[in-house]
Design a protein that fits this description.
Helix 2 crosses helix 3. The mean pLDDT is 84. By secondary structure, the protein is an all-alpha fold. It contains 4 helices and no strands. It starts with a helix and ends in a 9-residue tail after the last helix. It is globular, with a radius of gyration of 10 Å. Helix content is 60%, strand content 0%.
C-alpha cells in the first residue's frame, strides 16, 4: 500500500482497491497509523515522480 502511494501512479481509490481496502476512506486510517500522515500528504512528501505539481 505505501509503495503504491509513493509511486503516485494511481488515484487513492485505486490504491485502496489494489491494497484490499476497498475505498480511499478505508485507506486513510492504516496509512495515518503507519506513517503519521494522510495518504495525500505521504504521497506528496515521498513521491518518486517529478511530474506536474510535484516537487
Amino acid at each position: 500500500m505505501i509503495v503504491l502511494l509513493e509511486h503516485g501512479e494511481s488515484r487513492l481509490d485505486v490504491v485502496a482497491r489494489r491494497s484490499g481496502l476497498g475505498t480511499a476512506t478505508n485507506l486513510r486510517a492504516p496509512v495515518c497509523r503507519e506513517t503519521g500522515r494522510t495518504p495525500g500528504e505521504h504521497r506528496h512528501r515521498f513521491s518518486r515522480h517529478d511530474g506536474p505539481g510535484r516537487r
